[in-house]
């Protein structure tokens, strides 16, 4: 069965937090400010992420072998087997020696200190040539009768049936007709042939969770217009994504031969390297290295021209327990009390992966790197397993315009400050689109359960790709 709608299996919290005062105006003793920043950031995320204690969602089971993860079923069980234990560490940990806990303290301080220093540039709006760079997160939803860019009845070559709401019980589809229009700047309309020309001889890679996979499938449908393309090549084997004999791959890679353009997706729900603690034990726990990027990125970054990272909804203790993940930092089990909450762990990992990618930009001048902000959930009256729902089908009932200049995903915004990694900020605009979720319409959903996390396609993720397209050089 394709996807099973991922039967609502990402019950993480949005973690949309206010910026700590200590990072708004960092003054006085830098060390004191960094200490306050860490404490306030951790506190804010912990308070905003109480749902991290949720039990595992429906269908979560631990697969015996990482390469047998059912990626189109119940959110896979997120057990990417990491490789190459001697991989280069992010700059914040590269020189760390001695007491592991002391090293974590140093890396935490350096991470937040760097982010605080990076905020000094916020007063200056970056420019591209003689034009200001658009704030794509600020704007409004407008009705566009030329949409959607592909049919939800078609695109079966790329689109999982569990996300194609036209094939479900839903009867209202006005959500397909909304386009995101940034304020004070024009955003070029997406055209598949123009995308391929712009990406001629290049590779675009999505690395993240099932929301990243939705964006990947959306883009494939947008490029092809939902039409069958027998000329498109499956090149997953070139990236180690060949289909196992009795399972599904860790991702997909497709190449358009007319322009030699490759679009791929790699599953990494937490953007960390994950490896078996005991390779000989089929029931082993897994070391989840928060400061080590996935082996896939370490091995393939030099081949990628546009990279889109995301994580967020898997940072809850239910999933960690179900997947037998054990947090590691600096090559050893994490015992640092400052990395004790899900919010702390997630933020540290986001900073680590962004820092690592940023450190690789000088030797990969071809690379444009984006960190996509979190895709919001819209459960009302409960959670995925307690009667939570998103029954609204009327577009823009919450509102249609975003006027805020600042991102509502503070973790992502904070991580990219002072780096060459851009934020692909889709949180606020998507927050207005509660009618766009799969909701109760899935043919495979259990009674009383709704999917208020994943989106109908075509739908909201198409707008994410339009914003991405506008920024690809």
UniProtKB/TrEMBL annotation:
Cellular-component GO terms for this entry: Golgi apparatus; membrane
Topology within the bilayer: Single-pass membrane protein
Entry keyword set: Membrane, Signal-anchor, Transmembrane, Transmembrane helix
Domain Trichome birefringence-like N-terminal: 133-186
Compartments, record wording: Membrane
Molecular function via GO: O-acetyltransferase activity
Region ranges (Disordered): 1-74, 80-99
Keyword ATP-binding: no
Residue spans of biased composition, Polar residues class: 30-44
Location (main, coarse): membrane
InterPro entries assigned to the protein according to its UniProt record, in alphabetical order: TBL, TBL_C, TBL_N
Domain Trichome birefringence-like C-terminal: residue ranges: 189-470
Superkingdom field: Eukaryota
Biased composition (Basic and acidic residues): 1-27
Keyword Translocase belongs to the record: no
PANTHER family, A to Z: PROTEIN TRICHOME BIREFRINGENCE-LIKE 16, PROTEIN TRICHOME BIREFRINGENCE-LIKE 9-RELATED
Family per record: Belongs to the PC-esterase family. TBL subfamily.
This protein's name: Trichome birefringence-like N-terminal domain-containing protein
Organism field: Linum trigynum
Lineage: Eukaryota, Viridiplantae, Streptophyta, Embryophyta, Tracheophyta
């Amino acid at each position: 069965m394709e996807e099973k709608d991922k039967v609502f299996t990402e019950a993480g919290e949005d973690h949309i937090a206010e910026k700590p005062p200590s990072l708004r105006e960092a003054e006085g003793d830098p060390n004191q400010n960094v200490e306050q920043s860490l404490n306030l950031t951790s506190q804010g995320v912990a308070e905003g992420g109480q749902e991290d204690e949720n039990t595992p969602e429906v269908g979560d089971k631990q697969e015996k072998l990482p390469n047998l993860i059912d990626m189109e079923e119940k959110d896979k069980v997120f057990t990417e087997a990491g490789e190459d234990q001697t991989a280069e560490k992010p700059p914040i940990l590269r020189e760390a020696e001695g007491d592991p806990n002391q090293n974590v303290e140093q890396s935490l301080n350096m991470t937040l200190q760097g982010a605080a220093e990076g905020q000094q540039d916020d007063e200056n709006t970056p420019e591209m040539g003689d034009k200001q760079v658009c704030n794509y997160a600020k704007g409004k939803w407008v009705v566009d009768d030329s949409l959607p860019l592909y049919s939800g009845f078609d695109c079966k070559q790329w689109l999982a049936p569990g996300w194609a709401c036209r094939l479900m019980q839903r009867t209202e589809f006005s959500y397909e007709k909304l386009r995101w229009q940034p304020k004070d700047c024009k955003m070029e309309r997406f055209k598949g042939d123009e995308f391929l020309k712009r990406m001629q001889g290049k590779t675009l890679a999505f690395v993240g969770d099932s929301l990243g996979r939705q964006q990947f499938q959306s883009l494939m449908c947008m490029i092809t217009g939902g039409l069958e393309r027998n000329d498109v090549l499956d090149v997953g084997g070139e990236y180690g994504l060949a289909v196992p004999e009795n399972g599904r791959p860790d991702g997909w890679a497709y190449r358009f031969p007319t322009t030699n353009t490759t679009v791929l997706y790699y599953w990494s729900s937490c953007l960390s390297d994950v490896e078996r603690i005991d390779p000989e034990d089929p029931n082993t726990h897994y070391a989840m290295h928060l400061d080590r990027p996935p082996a896939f990125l370490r091995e393939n970054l030099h081949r990628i021209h546009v990279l889109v990272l995301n994580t967020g909804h898997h940072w809850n203790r239910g999933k960690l327990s179900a997947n037998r993940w054990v947090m590691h930092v600096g090559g050893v089990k994490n015992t640092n009390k400052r990395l004790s909450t899900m919010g702390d762990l997630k933020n540290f990992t986001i900073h680590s992966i962004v820092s690592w990618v940023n450190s690789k930009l000088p030797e990969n001048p071809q690379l444009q790197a984006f960190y996509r902000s979190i895709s919001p959930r819209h459960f009302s009256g409960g959670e995925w397993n307690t009667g939570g729902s998103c029954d609204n089908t009327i577009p823009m009932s919450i509102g249609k315009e975003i006027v805020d200049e600042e991102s509502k995903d503070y973790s992502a915004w904070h991580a990219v400050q002072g780096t060459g990694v851009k934020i692909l900020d889709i949180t606020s605009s998507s927050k207005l689109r509660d009618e766009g979720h799969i909701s109760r319409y899935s043919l495979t959903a259990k009674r009383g359960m709704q999917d208020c996390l994943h989106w109908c396609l075509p739908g909201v993720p198409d707008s994410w790709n339009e914003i991405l397209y506008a920024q690809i050089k």
